[in-house]
Amino acid sequence: MTIEKQITEKFCKAIETLYSQAIDINTVQISKTRKDIRGDFTINVFPYLKISRKSPEQTAIEIGKQLTDSLPEIDSFDVIKGFLNLVLSDSFWVQQLNNKNEPIPSRKNALIEFSSPNTNKPLHLGHIRNNLIGHSISEILKANGQTVTKVNLVNDRGIHICKSMLAWQKWGNGESPETSGMKGDHLVGKHYVEFDKKSKANVAYLFNLFKEYKKLPASFTKEQIAAQIGMFETAERISNELNYPTVKRIINSLKIIQSKQINTNQEIDFIEQVVSALIESPLYSAQEMLLKWEEGDKDIINLWNKMNGWVYEGFDITYKELGISFDKTYYESQTYGLGKDEVLKGVTAGALIKKEDNSVWADLTDEGLDEKLLLRSDGTSVYMTQDIGTAIMRKNEFNADEMIYVVGNEQNYHFQVFRLVLKKLGYEWYDKIFHLSYGMVELPEGKMKSREGTVVDADDLIEEMYATAKSISQELGKLEGHSESEIQKTIKMVGMGALKYFILKVDPKKNMVFNPKESIDFDGNTGPFIQYTHARICSIIRKAKEAGIVIPGKADDKTTITETEKSLLKIISDFDNIVVEAGEELNPAIIANYVYALVKEYNLFYHNLPILKESDKTKQDFRLLLSFVASEKIKYSMHLLGIEVPERM
RNA sequence: GGUUCCGUAGCUCAGUUGGAUAGAGCAACAGCCUUCUAAGCUGUGGGUCGAGCGUUCGAAUCGCUCCGGAAUCACCA
Question: What is the distance between the alpha carbons of residues A506 and A499, in angstroms, rounded to a whole number?
Fold first, then answer.
C-alpha cells in the first residue's frame, strides 16, 4: 500500500474520531507539499470545516496530532492557513530505495494499432510521431502488466498507389532502387510527385484549350449550347476539380456534340484535342489502372507487387532506425472487402437502411449526427465498412479487452461514427475501442504540405539528427579514445534520443510545432541531457568498482540525509505512481516529464554533494546506492519512451 | 454554418478530478571547470494564464458569452 493511501486512511479515521462523522476516502485530497514549504505531503482541510465546526488552523492541528500519533512514518507537521503539511521521517524516505518495483499485475489484453502508412510515399514527421507514440504506449502498458499486441494496417491499395505506378510506368524508364540508388519508398514517392506535376500540366493544357475555344464562333443548337454551358462551367473549375466522373462527363458530352456533325472544322479539331488530352490525362489513366487492379489484371498486379515491395524495403529501414516493430501487419488489399457481410446482416436485422439505389446507410440522427454511407450503390465498401470488418476480425482473433487506434485527430469524427455504427450493429464491445487521437506536427507557417514540398521527411530528419549529434560530440571532445563502432552507436543513441524525446515530451493530443530551421536542442529539457545524466552515473559506478567499492544491496535506514537527497528520494519513490498514471492516460509525456524532473534533481544532488569523495562510509554507501537506483529509473523511464541510454557519452 | 479541439513568458512546452507566491527549457545577460563527465550547475530580466461575466472560502483549471486559431462535416482513405 502506498504511503499516500495509508495517510488518507488514517486521515478518515482521525476525522471520525474527532468529529464523529464518516467521510469517503476517495474525497480526501492528498498532494505533495510545495517545494518552498517544509513538509512532504499536504492535505487541505477546508472541505472538512463544516464537519469540524472549527477554524481551518484549529482543525488542521487537531487532525495533524491524530495522524502523527497513528502513523510512525509521520515525524511532525506544520499548519499554514488550512493546509496540513506532514513531515515524514528520514528513515522512511531512505527505505524507499529498498522498494523493488514490480510490474503491476493485470490480466488486461490490449491491442494497439499504429503507424498505418500509405505505400505511395515515404514516411514523414507526422508518421514519426504516430510511431513513437504507438511504441511508447505499448511499452507503458506492458509496464502496467498488460499483454500488448502491436498491429500495423498498411494502406497498400487505392488510387494514390496507382498514381505512383502510372508515373513510373510512363516516365520512370524502368528505374529501380538498385539502378537509381534511391531508397524504395523514396523512389515511389518521387513518382507520386511526378504524377502530380504531370497531372497539373495536363489540367493547365486543357484549361487553355477551353479558353481558346470560347473565342470561336459557336454553331450549335439550343440543346447543344446548354451542354456547352455545362462544359464551360466544368472548365472554369477544372483546375481543382478534375476527377474521373468529371472527365467521363466531359468526354461524353463532347462525343455527343461531335456526333451531330454540325460543327466547324475548328470545333471538330478542338473536340478531338480535348478528348485525347482527357483520355491521356494521368488522372484518367490512374483511375483506369485502379479498375484493372480490382479486376485482377496480371500485369498491373505484378507492377503493384513490385513497387509495394520497394516501399516495404524502405519502410523496414526506417522502422528499424526508429526501433519500431509489430506483432502483426495487415494489408488493406486483404481486408478491404471485409465488413460488407456485416453491413448486409445489419440491413436484414433492420439496424441499417437500404436506399432505392441500393446504397446502405447508418442513420445516426438520434445520436445527433447525420446519416453515414456504408456501401455504395454499386455494392462496394467504403473506408468505414473496412474498419468495421477489421475490428470484428481482430476482436475474434485476439479478443482484446481494449482496442487502441493511434490515429491523427483529423479522424476524430470518423472514430465517433465508427463506434456508433458498431453499437448499432449490436457489438457491445464498441466502447472498448479507444481512439488515441494525436495532434498534428505543424511548421511555424502552418500545416506541412506535400504539394509545396514542406513535408519533413523521416529519413532526412533522422540523418540530420545523427549528424548534429556527431558534430556536438566532436566539439565537446566526448568521443576521444572510443572505438569507431562505439562512436557510431553513441551518436545514433543520442541523435535518436533527442528526436524521440522532443516529440514524446509533448502531450500526444496536442498539436505541436516543429521548426526545421532551428535544429532540435541537445541542451536543457532534452533527451541528450537525460542520457548524459545516466552516463555520468555510470561513470561514478565504474569508478567505484575500480576502487573496489561495492554498492550496498540495501539502504541503511540510520543514514542521515540532506534536503537534496530527500527531494531525490521523493521523486524516485513516485515512479510506480507515474507508470500507472501514464498507462491510464495513455500518455508518454507523463513519463518524459517525470524523468526530466528526476534527472534535474539528480544533477542538483551530483553538484551539491560528494559521492565517491565522501569520507563517511555510511553516507558514501547510501549516495552510491541512491545514484544507482536513480540510473535504473532513468534507464527504465527512457525505455518506456523507446529511448536507449549510453553508459558513456 | 454545425460539431470537436486548442489559446499559459519573445519561442517551444509543463501545470487542468478547483488549492498556498503560475513553472521548465531555448533565446538574452552575469557567474561556476587544479575538485566524481561544463550535453552540467547558480543567478538576473521576462506573464492581464486570449477577453469579459459568473459559480465560491479559493479559478490557468468549472459554467456562460465573445475574440483568435485548427480539424472535420464525400458514393476519398
Answer: 12
Q: What 3-state DSSP class applies to A238?
A: helix
CB atoms within 10 A of CB A35: 8
Q: Which regions in chain A score pLDDT beneath 50?
A: 239-241
Smallest CA-to-CA distance from A206 within A152, A271, A265 is with: A271
| Strand B lies under 7 A from the Cβ of residue A437 | no
Predicted pLDDT at A229: 52
**Is residue A505 within 8 Å of A593, Cβ to Cβ?**
yes
Overall residue count recorded for chain A in this entry: 649
First vs last Cα of chain A: how many Å apart? 39
Name the closest residue (CA) to the C1' of nucleotide B40. Answer: A603
| DSSP state for residue A376 in the 8-state scheme | -
Chain A 372-431 contacts with nucleic strand B (CB below 7 A): 373, 376-378, 382-383, 386, 409-414
Q: How confident is the model at residue A92, as a pLDDT?
A: 94
pLDDT tens column, A447-461? 888 777 789 999 999
A286-342 per-position pLDDT tens digit: 888 998 998 999 999 999 999 999 999 999 999 999 999 999 999 999 988 889 999
Question: Cβ of A223: how many Cβ atoms within 10 Å?
Answer: 11
pTM score, two decimals?
0.92
Sheet-wide strand order for A360-363? A353-354, A360-363, A371-375
A422 touches A345 (CB < 8 A): no
Point out the nucleotide closest to A478 (alpha carbon to C1′): B37
Give pLDDT, residue A67.
94
